[in-house]
Amino acid sequence: MSIPRPKNIILFFCFLPLLLGCGQKDQKAQKTQTVHLVFKHGKIAGDPVLFRNLLDKFETDHPGIKVKDETLPASTDEQHQFYVINLEGKSSDFDVLSMDVIWVPEFARAGWLRDLHHLVPEKERTAFFSGPMEAVTFEGKPYAVPWYIDAGVLYYRKDLLQKYGFLPPTTWAELVSTAQTITAEEKGLYGFIWQGKQYEGLVCNVLEYMWSNGGEVMREGKPVLFSPENIYALNFMKDLIIKYKVTPPLVTTAIEEPTRHIFGNGQALFMRNWPYAWNIFQREGSPVKDKVGISTLPSFPTHESASTLGGWQLGVNRFSKNPQVAEKLVLFLTSPESQKTLALNIGYKPSRQSLYLDEELIREQPFIAELTDVLRKARPRPVSPYYLMISQIIQPEFSAALSGIKTAEEALRSAQQQIEFILKVDR
Amino acid sequence: MKARNNGTPFVLPALVLLSLITVYPAVYVFYLSFQRRLLIFDLSKYVGLDNYLFLLGDKRFWNALGNTFYFTLISVSLELVLGLGFALLLHRTFKLKGLVRAVVMIPWIIPTVVSAKLWEWIYNTDFGILNYLLGLKVNWLGSPFWALNCAIAMDVWKTTPFVAILLTAGLQIIPEEVIQAAKIDGAGTWQIFKRITLPLLKPVILVVLIFRTLDAFRVFDAVYVLTGGGPANTTETLSIYAYKVLFQTLQFGYGSALSVIVFLCVGFFSLVYLKFLRKSNL
């Protein structure tokens, strides 16, 4: 009996790009002397023509360089997988790559990225927000340039807060009492929704509570997850569901989009999400048009609010045949002009701080000014080549604490032990 | 004899192709499973049985193994019982038989990922039709107790038609005369089913069991799309765990060891079934 095993199929496809790659290279060499760059990235939001226009401008500015942009699958896991398989195979089929904020240290450690410290000299680094700059820096050197930025924000229903005389909450306790008061009056309204399914987004959510209580995951390369601050924060999240009942249990299966739908239908008072949802809420026909406000996430008393940093960074493939030319493209796409164009046309939030003072940008997208503070405070998830392994350990433990299989204390102790174990091996 | 030997060159291309795309990768996975290989640290060394020893103490592995066995046992049993029921119904002659047969096949035709997405909506706490019909507010996929059972329900819905169709084919080869003879001898419906239909159907049932057990044991797409292994790994099957270790945390050595375990389990099941099958053919 021969039964196809998924493993075999996967391995087969691992080699497929290599085979295909060989053919492409030969063709390139035979053509003219024009340098062809390949730029790999995730799906660009909105009309693809707008992004192509930007690349066309680069081609006009730099005669003799042609840029081919290739879109990867929408799921970030699949993009990660694509890069890993191809970079491990030392593929030179793409020159510039866009990376999620959590990948850079891992790829840099593996030796897959070109050191870009000369592109962003020391004094220029402050031009970017500190969060993304920290995330692209490995062993003191930047291996990518921050392209655009994302951060967790609190959405609230302006109209309802006004009706009941509340201000946007600044502490978690205020959020709970506001939500309890208003949901008692408004039938069928959820208090506060967020993302609690076992996936990367859960880590983003939990860290915001831990950080805003003074907790951390790693300090100076050592895990410090098992701490009273973190136990308190994780317990509070569970209490949102069980004790205070402001969060419906459905969040334990929710990722971004389902929560966005619920809030967008006018069925929730507060929501934690990324800034992308704002433009959707403001569309014609949206039930919550002009009723939504956005602010920094609350914090625990005496601590500062903290948002998890998201966003994408541009790096150069170390196996690229034209690294200098590829660097030019990175510089161009991360320049203030390009970031402004992307912000105006597609709504990507610039990683350069100066653009948040740009008059035209503020006029066109007034809410960008409200975001400045959130983005400045946004914190990267632990910057470590081990991050993806750490995330795989903490996702199920956080999920276990939220669904009541373990206490927060048990979950964090177990996570701490597992992280200590993987850090010990191969050091 | 000579004619048989002449066939070799014709089979050769297929053999070469098969060994390239199945034998070589399979052997390579075995080889990898004896290595400690971490791509990001450029680490690749022979560690003997270390991965397998680590596996013995890995709670997450035992949890995944337990989930996989539970999933396989419950879903395959339900599918067999329901599939047999459907097959007996479909075997009778009635109006619109063709139409009913086609309708029964629909769940099997829908791609797994699509049906997983459909079921994700069915199970949705707020908007899902299941809670609407039951008048409840159960958080199906978020509950450690329900999540895996929900995945099983989806799998049963999806694969029962496959079982039913195979068994219907099996029923059609049972000679009508045998059943009529039994009737003349005064056997009741139950007796006919137990003494004639079931024994004659046994080879087909075994084939169905082989297919379904092996498929269920390697289940990945349905559960991965439905829950991603959550909440708290209560729906994480061996294939999902292996995928996460291999492609999300890039531990190729340990991930391969997990795959080898799946392979060994599946191989063991096939051997047992094949033995039964050979016996029943005698």
Record keyword descriptors for this entry.
heterodimer; A: 427 residues; alpha+beta; D-Maltodextrin-Binding Protein, domain 2; 2 domains; six-stranded mixed beta sheet; four-stranded mixed beta sheet; globular; B: 282 residues; mainly alpha; MetI-like fold; two-stranded antiparallel ribbon; 75% helix
Mean pLDDT of chain B: 90
Strand content of chain A: 5-15%
Quote the beta fraction of chain B.
Answer: under 5%
Could you name the CATH class of the largest domain in chain A? Alpha Beta
Give the strand order of the largest sheet of chain A, numbering strands 1, 2, ... along the chain: 2-1-3-13-6-14
The chain-level mean pLDDT of chain A equals: 89
Helix content range of chain B? over 70%
The figure for the number of domains of chain B is: 2
Give an overview of the whole structure.
- The complex is a heterodimer of chains A (427) and B (282).
- In chain A, 46% of the residues lie in helices and 15% in strands.
- Chain A is an alpha+beta fold.
- Chain A folds into two domains: 11-20 and 29-150 and 310-377, Periplasmic binding protein-like II (D-Maltodextrin-Binding Protein, domain 2); 153-306 and 386-424, 3-Layer(aba) Sandwich (D-Maltodextrin-Binding Protein, domain 2).
- In chain A, the strands form four sheets. In chain A, strands 2-1-3-13-6-14 form a six-stranded mixed sheet, sandwiched between helices. In chain A, strands 8-11-7-12 form a four-stranded mixed sheet, with helices on both faces. Chain A has a two-stranded antiparallel ribbon with strand order 4-5.
- Chain A is globular, with a radius of gyration of 23 Å.
- Chain B is mostly helical and 282 residues long.
- Chain B has two domains: 2-46, no CATH class; 58-281, MetI-like fold.
- Chain B is 75% helix and 3% strand.
- In chain B, α4 runs antiparallel to α10 (189-217).
